[in-house]
Amino acid sequence: MTDGVEILPVRGIGDVTPGDDLAALILGAAPWVRDGDVLVVTSKVVSKAEGRLVEVPADGPEREAARAQALESETARVVARRGPTVIVQTHHGFVMAAGGIDASNVDKTHLVLLPADPDASARALRAALRARGRDVAVIISDTMGRAWRNGLTDVALGAAGLPALRDHRGEIDPYGNELQLTQMAVADELASAGELVKGKSDQVPVAVVRGIPGVGQDDGVGAATLLRDGASDMFSLGTAEARAAGLRDAATMPETLPGGIVDPQAVDRALVTVAEMIAPGTLVRPAEVLPENGATAGLLVTPPGTSAADLVRLGADAQRLRASLAAEGIASASLPHEDGLLLALSAAGGVR
Amino acid sequence: MTDGVEILPVRGIGDVTPGDDLAALILGAAPWVRDGDVLVVTSKVVSKAEGRLVEVPADGPEREAARAQALESETARVVARRGPTVIVQTHHGFVMAAGGIDASNVDKTHLVLLPADPDASARALRAALRARGRDVAVIISDTMGRAWRNGLTDVALGAAGLPALRDHRGEIDPYGNELQLTQMAVADELASAGELVKGKSDQVPVAVVRGIPGVGQDDGVGAATLLRDGASDMFSLGTAEARAAGLRDAATMPETLPGGIVDPQAVDRALVTVAEMIAPGTLVRPAEVLPENGATAGLLVTPPGTSAADLVRLGADAQRLRASLAAEGIASASLPHEDGLLLALSAAGGVR
Questions:
Q1: Claim to verify: residue A18 and residue A164 sit in the same structural domain
Q2: Which InterPro entries does the entry link to (chains A, B) (predicted)?
Q3: Residues A188 and A268 both lie in one domain
Q4: DSSP bridge partners of A340
Q5: Tell me, what's the ipTM?
Q6: What residue of B is the nearest CA neighbor of A88?
Q7: Who has the most CB within 10 Å: A292, B7, B36, B92?
Q8: What are the chain B neighbours of A243 within 8 Å (beta carbons)?
Q9: Alpha helices of chain A — where are they, by DSSP H?
């Protein structure tokens, strides 16, 4: 740990334009920067220096169209949408409203994109500062929203010269418990700390954090390590989008069985879910199935009659039941049966 | 803005036990605390002082059962579950892994719960510090995971004496643009800044942040204002859970029509989604519907034949189509028709 940390604003950097030498501007404004400091640099001035600007009309529908086009080119996938808010994952992997494209702190005929590779930007700025005699770490920061919590915080888009994560796993607390959690996203915490002395009007685009141990020789792996990959992200889609995907899953359910053992309680839950929706008089009961094709359980659905309407309704009801089973992680296939419809079941890896 | 911020660790507080006077312990260890400081206090020492402990067996299945019971009593709803990880919303409204229940930094026969009302805890601690002659702000912090990003950060569970949000809306940047975004979650940023000088072993349970403007007379609304309500949260459920909910939506689709005008392009998308799944030879075409019951468009589904199997399949295919339409925000109702099945449609407020 540390004896204390200072966070110092860097004022007087002024307007940054494409081609500017950011290291020179920073040290011109803050000649007091010293070895071991962490410089938290607002991504916007990095983008401006790197010329990551898009020319757009100052107003009107053409401006909106140009803005939509810029968003599309920055977007790898749409994560969630509600009204005018679009949250996307950028090609970098950041999940941000409007892809991090910003129209503030720039003249009305330009939009500012995120740096193309913020870790590379951090490394380059760090190298330029070292060339001017200062051995520091660099964090490129931006403002992001979060799930579940109101308000925005600054996080690290790029980092060089210190580990973005601090790992406490395996440490023992004073009671002898091994710490479980606990990779701390220290680069994000530094970005947030830096924001405390910065404004939103970019007159203080750089904060210096002094007293952080671990500013190293190596650039390190950068802030990309803070990006959660899709496979480990439990919130890769907005709730409404995932729910719509579930409806599409129901629309396109295959009639194939992965072969897992079915939990009878899950079947019971699925039956309870649809009980009110199925034609009165319909019987649903456990049935023997041949284990071929992966079936490990079966349900026989018998309609109350054999009119054309009864049969159409049987098909619809069986499909409701199949969707309800799928919600419990159970795949199904429909087989003809003299008493109605036989659903062959097996546990799926699908939705659960 | 500020001339700079200092973050100072408070060491030597030692073990905290139920009934301890936290204000006395803090000022005993840090007599240098002064008016205007922000004290970031790890929630665990607040919980311990308040006796928010649950006795549990030191090991074995009984320990796991007691732990599960504690989690259940802290949980308002389960947000997401994957393997051993359970993310819940607590009765306070926090979305946290394991409901914020912690087994570290406490002896093996106890679990530590979150403070019952962290804003009240912050106000009480602030009042106790003021009674001892220090006019400060207090933040109760804890470590949380985030969607989309690896690593944990500290955030504010409770706050008193400063605004948890800093509002920049309506401010004008140097280019004349009105700032849009931008309520900053300053209490969370302070919690993260405090974490930079704290350890994970609770030997530094308090950080003092000095130089933050806005430490006020009033306690303010507290950190509860940082909790996003369900209605405005686009990520109120894990993706897998929301997808399963979508499957249940398909299983329980009502046959009622809210009456909105149907977008023909949305119908086309819905048809494309299920095209491969529907019995070969089935015809789906636009059809007139009576505007009674809210229908604003119609689709006639005609099966390739009239055998019992054709009719069962017609019912299933129509249900697939209805789920696909629902994914596009279109509600439907099935009506008998001499040529098959007529789906009456209208736009829904449902999933979109």
A1: yes
A2: F420-0_g-glutamyl_ligase, F420-0_gamma-glut_ligase-dom
A3: no
A4: A337
A5: 0.92
A6: B148
A7: B7
A8: 242-243, 245-246, 249, 351
A9: 22-29, 43-49, 60-74, 118-131, 186-195, 239-251, 264-274, 308-327
